[in-house]
Design a protein that fits this description.
heterodimer, A: mainly alpha, two-stranded antiparallel sheet, B: mainly alpha, 15 helices, 72% helix, 0% strand, ABC_transp_permease (chain A)
């Protein structure tokens, strides 16, 4: 009921369509972050490193890990579900990839992610356990398996050369390969969401699963595939992150779940599912990464960063993420 | 429904026995979740006590009660928004923040301590009220609003306690974390706890009494009020509750405030138990996530509308008893997270069995 209300607004002149609003505001906020950061560095150091291409490309490279996680998570959130198993799916994929090594390292890592995603999908779609609690349980199980596997220490195995190439190298010394991987994942997600029946089914289920089922969509299968995609994306991010830091370590995925959710939501995706564009998620990821980077350049302590982080999410949503009033 | 052609007598004779039976089965269904969790708890705890090398002693009971208290209160806090089909991801952060405040304030003269306790409780409720304002007036989804506010509360906690530390009043700390006799002895009550009438109860751990008091004095009056009933009604159908003229905004504000209050009480106890404050982000996250698990084990539906904080308290006890058992059976600490996860998955997957009983496939979807 709340979602249809916004759809009826017709674009007039320069008026923003509701779906564009998050993208425009988030992009504007990205510029604001860059301006504030540049103002700070101009004042303290007399230079503007934030506006240099190297810095921006570096940020995009670091952001590509978060971007890949967020791309997968967005598919699940569009269903109206959530995947809390991301942290240890990512870590497990990284650890298994380095443990297997050789040419099979990357397929092994992604396969682990895919497997966790499929189990999540089975639990959520076929057993009808709320995704919040099932993926939470899977996260604990994966954590237990990995802690038991490694004995609680960082594994000694190193990332393969190919993993390091994908995460660290730059083509022609300029374009990071990780950025290209993120780009490919992004294109794949956009294609799935906009050009396939699977994508339309995902939006339909997010709006009203009962109606989607009655229109002949095999909703259980769609949910299963969406969770598998999210798991695979987390697995890929884990493989890349292991390549970036040359090895896997305990808790390497912990810092990715909440920022990924925040990026998806800041990008205008409805947390209840059914509405959202991938472009928004893309801008959301860039916003989160730049915010983190500028706050650390400004040497704001952890406490201040947490507060600013929370305030930014709330104020962005107050601008364009508000729900409709309940009116019967 | 009875405005049909049936004569009153016929209606009565047909309905009375059925209504009685229906009432019973309704009550049974309403409480099946809690009773199941209670049964699970008793089995696990009995198992723990039987296999404990020293058997059931007061000391072990006190220790167990102390370990349960904070999680029980955080889970009760989580229950209130979940009843409205929302979720509060800030309960762990509120607990941590109030714990950090307590580590600054709970010391000195009795008057200062009383003021400190009042300040801690107020701070918890204020955090919850702020959540409620963002959700009600900002109209932001609870899960994402509390995700953001939890970052803010953790930030404030980090300002208050950049490194773990602080101190709390030692007598008070000792009194609330031991049994009733010690509590009385510490404060020179009832002949130092030796009064003869007190002896049958003297073994009861103080945390358990506090839990019972919180449920009887805060939770029960709350759910019996119009505001409390409205919380349940919102969880069942917000638009129906609105159309019935129920005070929706007031109920939401009250629910989040109550959640903050419960989480704050949990943080206050944690500070007293550990005699310090610690702005530990992973710990806060773990409490939040465990609270969701405890709510589900306690029979509250994440879809809202049914459940109770009492169930969540029992759910928290079940979770803690599982780890007590690990200690007894000397399960390698490394394997504990694996078993905890498997137990959680098994417990929630049992709910999938109810799908087998559905007559209409459409009932699967919300």
């Amino acid at each position: 009921m709340s979602r249809t209300a916004d759809m009826t607004i017709t674009p007039r002149g320069l008026r923003l369509r509701p779906d564009d609003k998050p993208v425009v505001f988030a992009a504007g906020f990205v510029l604001l972050i860059l301006l504030v950061g540049t103002g700070y560095t101009l004042y303290t150091q007399g230079s503007a490193p934030l506006l240099q291409p190297q810095y921006l490309v570096q940020q995009l490279q670091v952001g590509s890990f978060l971007g890949i996680v967020a791309a997968g998570l967005m598919v699940v959130i569009l269903l109206g579900h959530i995947d809390l198993s991301v942290p240890w799916t990512l870590t497990a994929a990284a650890m298994m990839a380095t443990a297997v090594g050789g040419p099979w390292a990357i397929p092994a890592g992604i396969a682990i992610g895919l497997l966790v995603g499929i189990v999540n999908g089975l639990g959520v779609a076929y057993l009808r356990v709320p995704s919040m609690i099932f993926t939470l349980g899977m996260n604990a199980v994966m954590r237990g398996l990995m802690v038991a596997h490694t004995g609680g220490f960082a594994p000694q195995t190193a990332a393969t050369d190919l993993m390091q190439y994908l995460a660290v190298s730059r083509i022609g010394g300029v374009i990071p390969v990780a950025l290209l991987v993120w780009l490919m994942v992004s294109v794949a997600v956009v294609m799935i969401l906009t050009c396939t029946t699977l994508g339309r089914s995902i939006y339909a289920i997010g709006n009203r699963e009962r109606a989607a089922y009655l229109s002949g969509i095999d909703t259980n299968r769609v949910i299963l595939i969406a969770f598998a995609l999210s798991g695979a994306a987390a697995g890929l991010a884990g493989v890349l992150l292991a390549g970036y830091s040359t090895k896997a370590y305990q808790g390497m995925g912990d810092a990715y779940l909440l920022p990924a959710i925040a990026a998806v939501v800041i990008g205008g995706t409805n947390i209840l599912g059914g509405r959202g564009r991938y472009l928004g998620t893309l801008v959301g990821v860039i916003l989160i990464v730049l915010l983190n980077s500028v706050l650390s350049i400004m040497q704001i302590p952890e406490a201040g960063r947490q507060i600013i982080y929370g305030c930014v999410i709330i104020s962005m949503l107050l601008v364009y993420g508000r729900g409709a009033r309940v009116n019967g | 429904m009875s405005d049909t052609v049936l004569p009153p007598a016929a209606v009565e004779s047909r309905e009375r026995p059925r209504r009685w039976g229906e009432g019973l089965s309704l009550r049974w269904r309403q409480h099946a979740g809690i009773l199941g969790a209670l049964a699970l708890f008793f089995v696990l705890y009995l198992f723990y006590q039987v296999s404990h090398p020293r058997g059931l002693t007061g000391q072990i009971l006190i220790q167990n009660a102390n370990e349960v208290f904070a999680l029980a209160l955080v889970s009760m806090a989580q229950t209130v928004p979940v009843l409205m089909a929302g979720l509060d991801l800030s309960v762990g952060a509120v607990m941590t923040l109030v714990g950090c405040i307590a580590s600054h304030l709970i010391d000195g003269s009795p008057g200062e301590i009383a003021l400190g306790i009042a300040a801690c409780i107020t701070a918890g409720a204020a955090c919850g009220f702020a959540n409620g304002c963002v959700v009600v007036y900002g109209r932001i989804q609870p899960i994402i609003a509390t995700l953001a506010t939890s970052a803010i509360y953790m930030g404030i906690a980090l300002i208050l306690r950049p490194t773990p530390g602080g101190r709390v009043h030692e007598d008070l700390s000792w009194a609330v974390t031991s049994d009733l006799r010690e509590f009385a002895a510490t404060f020179d009550l009832f002949d130092d706890g030796e009064a003869s009438w007190l002896q049958p109860f003297a073994w009861i751990p103080v945390p358990l009494i506090l839990l019972a008091l919180i449920i009887l004095l805060i939770w029960v009056p709350f759910i019996r009020s119009v505001t409390g009933r409205t919380v349940y009604a919102i969880g069942s159908s917000e638009s129906a509750a609105y159309m019935s003229g129920l005070p929706i905004n007031r109920a939401k504000l009250a629910a989040f405030t109550l959640a903050g209050l419960f989480a704050g009480l949990g943080g206050l106890f944690l500070a007293l138990q550990t005699s310090s404050g610690n702005a530990d982000i992973p710990q806060a996250g773990a409490y939040t996530l465990n609270s969701i698990a405890a709510v589900v084990i306690g029979g509250t539906s994440l879809l809202g509308g049914t459940g109770s904080a009492v169930g969540s308290m029992i759910g928290a006890m079940v979770l803690r008893t599982i780890s007590f058992n690990f200690r007894i059976f000397d399960v390698a600490p490394l394997l504990q997270p694996l078993f905890e996860g498997l137990v959680l998955l098994a417990a929630v997957s049992l709910g999938g069995l109810k799908l087998l009983r559905l007559k209409n496939k459409l009932e699967v979807f919300r």
